[in-house]
Structure formats: C-alpha cells, structure tokens
Amino acid sequence: MNARALLIRGLIAGLVAGVATFVVAYAVGEPHIDTAVSIEDGQPHTHSHDEAVEEEGGIEVSRDNQKTWGLLTGTLTVGLALGGIVALVAASTIGRLGSLAPSQSTALVALLGFVAFVLVPFLKYPGNPPAVGSGETIGDRAALYFGFVLVSVLAAVASTYGALKVRERLGTYGGVVAGIAAYLAVVVVAGQLFVTVNEVGAFPADTLWFFRRASLITLATMWGVIGVVLTGLVSRLYAAQTAEAERRQLAAGL
Predict the structure, then answer these.
(1) HEC profile for 135-197?
(2) 100 — phi, psi (to 5°)?
(3) Distance (Å, whole) CA 235 – CA 233
(4) d(Cα 108, Cα 50) in Å, to the nearest integer?
(5) pTM of this prediction?
(6) pLDDT tens digits, residue range 125-173?
(7) Which residue among 56, 89, 124, 233 is least crowded, i.e. fewest CB within 10 A of its CB?
(8) CA 36 – CA 23 distance, rounded (Å)
(9) Model confidence at 241, in pLDDT bands (50, 70, 90)?
(10) Crossing angle for the helix pair 102-114 and 205-253, nearest 10 degrees?
(11) Where are the alpha helices (DSSP H) in 98-137?
(12) At 95, which helix (H) or strand (E)?
C-alpha cells in the first residue's frame, strides 16, 4: 500500500472519470453553453458545423471541435491530474484516520475533497456561462473564487485533524460532530466576509440555472467516479496484500 501503487490506480480512476465526465458534460452541459453563446452573440440558437470561434492569437476553433475533442482533452487531463492528487492524498492518510481501512480512508478523502474543493465554493461562487460577467472583473472574480477554495480546503484539513484529536476524548461520534461544526463555522464566516459577485444582469434566469445545475452535475461526476473507482481498486489491492501476508504467515508457522 505505497504511494506508487495508489498513484497508478489513481491515474486509472482519473482516466475512467475523464471519459465519464466527457459523456455527462457533452449531454448535459454543452446544450446550455450553446444557448449562452447564442445569447452572447445576439443570434438565434443555431450553430453550423462550419462556425468558428476566433480566440487570442488568431487561432480559429470551431464550436464543434470545442465541445467534442476539446472537451474530451480537457476532461481527460483534469481527470488524470485529479485522480493522481486524490490517490497521493489517500496514500498519506492510510493508517492515520483512526481504525479506517485503506478503502474507507480513500473514500473519505474523495468525499471531503468534493465537499471542500467543489461543493462549498460552488455555493458561494457558482459557475457562470458565456455572456455572464464583465471581462474587466474576471481577474478579481478568479482571485475571490480561488481564495475561497483555499480557505475551504484548509478548513477541511484542519477540521479533520482536530476531529481525530477530539475523537480520543469524545469518541467517534463526538469527533465527527466537532469536525463538521468547526468546518461549517469557518466557511460560514468566510462566506460572509468574502465579497458577493452579482454580474448576471438581464441574462435569462432559467438558462443560468440549467447551466449551473449542469456544471455541478459534471463536477460531481468527475469526483464521484474517481472516488468509486479508486476506492474499489484500493480495496482489491488491500485484500490481495492481506491474503498474501496471511499465506506467508501460515507458511512460516509450518
């Protein structure tokens, strides 16, 4: 159960998650992006296969390529990176989260990662489609978002560590309640202190809602598949190594 073994399995989980996320994003998210793009351009919601989007540097990328090969490349890249990171973090927690088995601690890392890195920051600063937000404030908005993500992740790490310490005196239930309460206290206060961004303007509310819902579903797919696949692979690895250790112990006692 070393870092290398878990990293390989994390990359496998990330690859599977990247493919699954592409399918979900293409089916659930891209139609709403097309709608937002048509609103931004002030045109009816019709996009031909030859339509091209000119980006910085004069490179033209068709919308079809953006939402197929471009999207697949992005989800695979993010999936591999995220799977590797989750695996390494899970490897560092094995044996350090009380009596949790490696598969259980891996599942917990994936769950806490989704909550701290995605869900809670999304509640404060949800994603916006094209045509929403001023280009002049994009730097400030990005700084606010990543600042809140940093606070959320650090709070989750500190709360988990504190919960393990409190568990020694209050038991598992008391430790879990104390950890959750500490995390919620930090993110609620941070949510009040961080500036609220409201640049929606006259953008259609239903389109905005559908886009944000699709964004959250896509992110949940990425983290969920990584968590499920990596937990399964770690469980199989642990079972195989445990069986091997028992066989060796039995052979040594003969």
Answers:
(1) HHHHHHHHHHHHHHHHHHHHHHHHHHHHHHHHHHHHHHHHHHHHHHHHHHHHHHHHHHHCCCC
(2) -65, 140
(3) 5
(4) 46
(5) 0.85
(6) 998 887 676 677 788 888 999 999 999 999 999 999 999 888 878 888 8
(7) 56
(8) 20
(9) confident
(10) 160
(11) 102-114, 120-124
(12) none
Task: Return the half-sphere exposure (C-beta side, CA atoms, 13 A cut-off) of residue 92.
Answer: 7
Place of tokens 């920051």: 121
Distance CA 159, CA 149 (A): 15
**What's the rounded Cα separation, in Å, for the pair 40 and 130?**
7
Token pair, residue 196, equals 């609220």
Q: Is 134 left (phi over 0), alpha (psi -120 to 50) or beta?
A: beta
Q: How far apart are CA 75 and CA 17, in angstroms?
A: 8
Element (H, E) at 53: strand 52-54
HSE-up of residue 160 (Cα within 13 Å, Cβ side): 18
The angle subtended at Cα 60 by Cα 199 and Cα 40, nearest 5°, is 25
Q: Is-contact 187 112, C-beta < 8 A?
A: no
Give the other-Cβ count within 10 Å of 207's Cβ: 17
Instruction: For tokens 């239903």, name the residue.
Output: 206
